[in-house]
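Input/output pair, single chain:
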Amino acid sequence: MRQKQIRIVQCKHSIWGAKLDADVIADTIGAMEIYRTKFLGEMTRTLTFRLIVVTNGSFTSKARWEANQRDVELVGDAELWKLLEATPCTPAEVEMMESRRLATMRDVLAGIKALIL
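Output:
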C-alpha cells in the first residue's frame, strides 16, 4: 500500500534580505513532531510527512546543509518569487485562502481522516 503524503509548510517572515539559520530547521522539525503526536496519533502510520520551510528571506549555508540532512525542502527569496509569479491571484482570493487557513483543528483533522480513508 502506497502511503499518502501530507505537506506541512512552515512560513517564516523575515526582514527582506535576512538569512535564516539552521536553528529554524530544528525548531520547525520539533514543531512538526509535536503536531504529529498531539493531533494525528495513530494516523501517522499511514501518512508520509513532507516538511517545507518558506521564507521571504534566504537561508544560510548551514541551514541548507541541515535541511538537506533532515529532508526538509526550503523555499526562499528567488524560489519564492518564482512560485508567486507562477501563481497569480487576486486580493479576494488571498482573503478567501486566509479564511480557509483559519479553520479549526477539528476541520483539519476531518480533512486528513478523509484523505486516508
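Residues 93 and 99 are 10 Å apart (CA to CA). Residues 22-40 form the longest helix (19 residues).
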